[in-house]
Structures are given as C-alpha cells and as structure tokens.
Write a structure and sequence with these properties.
mainly alpha; 0% strand
Amino acid sequence: MTPASLPRRFGLLQATALNMINMIGIGPFITIPLLMTALGGPQAMLGWIVALVIVICDGMVWSELGAAMPASGGSFGYLREAFGRETYGRLMGFLFVWQFILSGPLEIASGYIGFANYVGYIWAGPTPGRLFAVAAAVGVVNIVLLYRRITSIATITVALWVGTMITTVAVIATGALHFDRRLAFDFPPGAFTVSLGFLFGLGAASRVGVYDYLGYYDVCYIGDEVKDPGRVIPRSIRSADKAPRR
C-alpha cells in the first residue's frame, strides 16, 4: 500500500487529542522540582512563560509545514524537502532518524521512570527493580495497543484524552483547594535582579518548560492519515497549544 492510499481517519477531535495526550503526561511531575530550583524560588515560573513563547512560535512553523506537506514522517520529510530530496536532504533525513533512535527512547523512558516513581506512592513495599518492571510491562502493553488499524488508534486516542482531561481537572481542583498564597509568592530577596546567574537560571527553567510542552506537533508525523490536513493539522496544533500543561 502506498502512502497516498492510507485511509484518512484522524479528524480534528482525534488529531487534537493525539497532540494533547502527548503534552499532558508525566513530564512536569518529575521535572517541576528541577524548574523551581533553577532560579531558587517562585520566580522560576518565568521559565514557563519564556517556554510558552518559544513553543507558540514553533507551533506556527509546524502548522504551516504540516498543512503544506501533509505526509507521514514529520521532520524527516520536511528536512528532505528543505535541503533537496536527492542531495543534502537525504543526509539530513538520515541524521534525523538516527538521532531519533537515541532521543526517542530516552524521552519515553523518562515517562516510564516517572510512572514507576508514582506507582511507589500507592504500592508500598516492592523494590525499585519491581517498580521498574511494572513500568516496562506497561510499555509492552502500549506497543501491543499501537499495533492496530488507524481507526482503532483514533478511538484509543480519544479515550486516553478523556481520561487525561479528567485527571488534569482533578489535579487543578486539588491544587486550588490547597492553594497557599504566602508560599506561592514567597520570592527571595533580589529574585528579579537581572544578572548572569539569573539569565542562566532562566535558561535552565525555560529548557525544562519546553520539554514539558513538547507533543503539540505529533499529528504531523501521521499526516497521510489525517482528514482534510490543510485545515485539521493547523487547528489541532493551535488547540493543543492552548491546552493546560502536563
């Protein structure tokens, strides 16, 4: 079957759900401490704002590319077209695939590490090895679930999105009920004094923030299976960028 004959089953709902469930994951629950210590106080939240500006600009680029070249492969295809399909584009695409072989599993592994850590809160007693074995088993289950037709994947994606949104609302509500203004705005002396250390800290916080935002472009990797991609891909990315963070 050629890529052009792939069934286009992902509509706006499914595409938005795909982007959002990849954004709203375990990331911040294991990285927020790193972000907060980057500047030594609540002012570290500036990193979220800087990261938001960066990903909005990046999301616009992904929207344009996804709408103009709605094929599967995402960055691989864009690099080939940008640098020439038969010249340097082949090299750039090759390099992207190879770096993704390394970076992709590491990104997914960070999520499973967070999952194992949180399982330890509700399942007291097992050794870290057993907890990570449970996380690995969940990874195997995910692989099995992904070996489905695109119609089944669309249904699974929406189901996971519903569960994700319920969990997100529960976390927000819990946080609001236990909000402490004095703790939230307990800025240390000189918190906003611009210095080399402040800029380095802001950069570190922004790096963590960008990591936590990632996922808003995932629909571009299955462009051949998206309905009306010129309309759906940009809208799904914009909708995901407006979603509550992970």
